[in-house]
Amino acid sequence: MIGTRCSKEQFEFVQERGMAAHYNETSRIISYRADLRKAPTLPGKIAVCCAGTADLPIAEEAAQTAEFFGASVSRHFDVGIAGLHRLLSKIEEIRTANVVIAIAGMEGALASVISGLTDAPVIAVPTSVGYGASFNGIAPLLSMLNSCAEGMSVVNIDNGFGAALSACRILRCANKLVQQK
């Protein structure tokens, strides 16, 4: 079981019911496995990249969700393109991923840049954080939707969970293709 956008009070409620669940304050995820077995391991790797530290809750939601469902995840935080050197210093490791989740607020340009620098599918996640005229995530959403970068898809605002599930499905489908050969 995995629950997203949970409060500390909700976690305490679950604990009071005797469930040995885990809670992460950054991602606000409660996770619990009744049978104590680990999720089946998915082949491949997902890179979770976020532009700035304000995007961390959504980035951790994506990373922890993917890990819960058995994916290997590499985290690349604070690699926004306002300081392009930060992204470029991590790009070789990001290129080893089979799927990239790019999370950004403000103008949402990170996903387009990563899509242009890698050959993996990129799942763009606009966030509702940012100053100026980000309009609670509408500005990065529109930037991502209007991007001419190839191989990029977009989920709704702040949807790290949905991006992670899509990335896991891509890994599962790729594995099925390999097994069919």
Automatic annotation (TrEMBL):
Transmembrane segments: none annotated. It comes from the Bacteria. Pfam families: AIRC. InterPro entries: P2CMN_synthase_LarB (IPR039476), PurE_dom (IPR000031). Gene3D superfamilies: 3.40.50.1970. Residues 44-176 form the PurE domain. This is PurE domain-containing protein.
